[in-house]
Amino acid sequence: MTGPVPSAARRDADSPRIISPYEHGIEPAAISSNAIEVVESLRQAGFSSELVGGCVRDLLLGRQPKDFDVATSARPDQVKSLFRRCDVFGRRFKIAEVWFRGEGIQVATYRKPPILDSRRRRSRNYSARGKILKDNRFGDIREDAFRRDLTINSLYLHPSDMRVVDYTGGFEDAQHRIVRCIGDPMERYREDPVRMLRAVRFATLPGFRVAVETEAAIAEQANLLTDVSNYRLTDEVTKMLFNGRALPTFELLYQHNLFRVLFPPYRWLHAGLNNDHGVVDWLRMLFRETDERIARDEHISVAFTLAAVHWPRFRNAMSKHAKKRRPASRRIAEGVLSQQNERTYLSGQLVYRITDIWQLQSVLESCRSGEQRVVEERNFRSAVRLLELRAKAGEIKSEVVEPWVMMRDRQQQNQRRRRRRFRRRSKRR
User: Fold this and answer.
1) N or C: which end of the chain has fewer CB within 10 A?
2) Would you tell me the crossing angle of helices 194-203 and 212-221 to the nearest 10 degrees?
3) Is the entire prediction scored with pTM above 0.90?
4) What are 157's strand-pairing partners?
């Protein structure tokens, strides 16, 4: 993650660096026609407008963006008045989303940092610890660039002439595959602790590494994540675990003691200490298989993944109550998951499914394979997957798992045949 990192060119002047199409090499065909239409409509209405953020970063790296974002001088209500299908949403600051032929293009107004008073960080816009509370002041494009989190996410692209505008040195960082905070990392993490997770997520991109000063501040500010709402953290954790790079993401989270903050049931899990009780090896195996399934374009279940992540914690809690005549497994499960809910939001339905997967483990171990009541359980497949992981970890014998795996595979084949059988045929003309 670290290494000799070239320093980005800092551009404090009002005039940015302009990168020509011959220098950046972005193919116009890779840009969404709907995004171009939004940009041109705003410009024809007299507003400045550009593509911005992750889509420009991905285009520079030769990757096809999943979505396209637009930055503009138009206010959200002005954007809404220009487009027939446009929604405005957001609590901290409002963003317009324009819909074209099933594709949503998010349009954000240029913004600038909140006002600081003479006591610095004691204004109503900041908390006592420096976290931004109100961030809805409109500004110009330069102020908007320096308000963003990472240099590689602060590039602006004009589709009309394919020029890239760079205020922060993000073009050089993208070329050298460097993740770097804009400004002082300590201060930026205090303003919004989620920026630490974004830095980690982008550091797992192929060939990327984090600038030394950006990385050094993460461990010192990790506990600031406890002040972030569990809804925001749920979104970031989902992106990190289901983007096909879960294993390298876990290694970075564990290395910087962020994992123990994001997953409170493992708050005792410190990097570099030998008291993990096999949890780290278990998580590495889980996330490696998760990445492999995503690479094969196979289904990934959030309920299964979270059940597997917290299985060692649930298993240990159950073993402590094993001497009791009737250990309350559901109460123990809800206790583990309530700790996790402090950091990431778990719906009641998700808690029920995770608990069911855990309780099915003892059923699968004790029942004979083929019992219809077990096979018809809603979470049967996820429970068998967890059983397979436990066998790979040496927790149970493979002889226990093999019959259930055969039953699961047979069930999947029967369902595929049933779907093909009842597939609607096209009418003959």
Assistant:
1) C
2) 130
3) no
4) 51, 164
Which amino acid does the sequence have at 2? Answer: T
Which pair of tokens denotes residue 343?
């950091």
Return the biggest CA–CA distance within the chain.
Answer: 78
| 67 a catalytic residue | yes
Alpha carbon of 221 to those of 133, 189, 194, 201, 293: distances in Å? 18, 7, 11, 17, 33
Chain segment 197-206, per-residue pLDDT in tens = 999 999 999 8
Mean pLDDT of the chain: 85
- Choosing from 58, 144, 149, 291, which is the catalytic residue? 149
Residue found by looking up tokens 């909140």 in the block: 114
Asked if 342 contacts 228 with a C-beta cutoff of 8 angstroms, the reply is no
What pLDDT shows up at residue 9?
A: 45
Is 161 one of the annotated active-site residues of the chain?
no
**Catalytic residue list contains 276:** no
* pLDDT over threshold 60, residue 179: yes
381: enclosing H helix or E strand: helix 380-392
Taking CA atoms, 124 is separated from 142, 233, 372, in Å, by 24, 24, 61
Q: Using the predicted structure, report yes or no on whether residue 131 has a pLDDT greater than 60.
A: no
Q: Are strands 86-89 and 95-100 parallel, antiparallel or unpaired?
A: antiparallel
Amino acid at 35: A
Domains of the chain are 17-228 (3.30.460.10), 279-421 (1.10.3090.10)
What whole-number distance in Å separates Cα of residue 80 and Cα of residue 65? 24
Catalytic residue (one of 67, 135, 235, 276): 67
Environment class of 146 (CB within 10 Å of its CB; exposed 0-12, middle 13-18, buried 19+): middle
Q: Please choose, from the candidates 250, 376, 342, the residue with its C-alpha nearest in 3D space to the C-alpha of residue 305.
A: 250
Name the active-site residue from 12, 14, 58, 69.
69
